[in-house]
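Students often ask why we bother encoding 3D structure as a string. The short answer is that it lets us treat folding as translation between two languages. Here is a chain of 126 residues written in the first language.
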Amino acid sequence: MHPPHILVVDDDETIREVAQMALEVVGGWRVTTVSSGGEALRVAADTQPDAILLDVMMPVLDGPAILSELQTDRQTREIPVVFLTAKVTPGREEEWEADGAVGTIAKPFDPMTLAEDVNRLLGREP
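And here it is in the second language, the structure alphabet:
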């Protein structure tokens, strides 16, 4: 059995590196990282990851716009998306979940618990 594959989408290189290390080393995930919404849409369609960890605030296409695009494509609509954001405000998480996200993880996140948090939101056993 192969390790689960997650696509990490964030325009901040440091966040991508820390998330990748945390998910690979602590969580046993196979991780692909990209820095933009356009890349995220292409890579998600090409690689069919088991999940996407998606930054909310990015230039050009933000997280909610990317989620909407993913959901309109039959190749990617079933991929669960977890938002990653520094700006969690009351009501926004519920709004994002109503739009199709499976949950939200706040930045700064704890690298030691990131994989556990993602697994919990996805309803996966660690």
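Translate back mentally: The chain has one domain: 5-121. Keep this in mind for the problem set.
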